Structure formats: structure tokens, C-alpha cells
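User: I'm putting together notes for a lab meeting next week and I want to include a structural view of one of the chains we've been expressing. I don't have a solved structure, so I'd like a prediction I can at least talk through. The sequence is below, exactly as it appears in our construct file.
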Amino acid sequence: MPDPTHSPTHPAAAGRVDIRLPWWALVLPAVAFVALLLLILNPADAQAAAGDPTLAHLVERLKDLLVP
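Assistant: Thanks for the context. Below is the predicted structure for the 68-residue chain, given as C-alpha cells.
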């Protein structure tokens, strides 16, 4: 005897996608982005920042543009 097929109790609406993200799925990437941006904008705090001075000049110019 074959098993009866079960139909969904709430059929999906045609042409509509309903995706819900938890709050932390949006907050965590934003916090990580801000933290990395702050680290880049303040290179004086980096202890091992010896390297190409061109990158340091670029970061300083970006900092000057972003911070009034």
C-alpha cells in the first residue's frame, strides 16, 4: 500500500520570497567592518606597521578625507 503524499499546510505565495535573518546576521558584519576600518584609520596603534610608506600615505589621505 503506497504512502499518502502530504501537502504543505501553508502553500508558498507565488512570486514572493520571504527570508528572515536573525539580528546578529546583520550586526556582526557591520561591527567587524567598523572595527577593521578603525584599525586602518589609526595606524599609529599598530606595533608591527613597518613596511611600504606608500600605503601609510594612502591611509593618511583617506583618514584626512573621512575625518573632518
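A couple of points you could mention at the meeting. The longest helix spans residues 24-41. The CA atoms of residues 29 and 35 lie 10 Å apart.

User: Perfect, that's what I needed.
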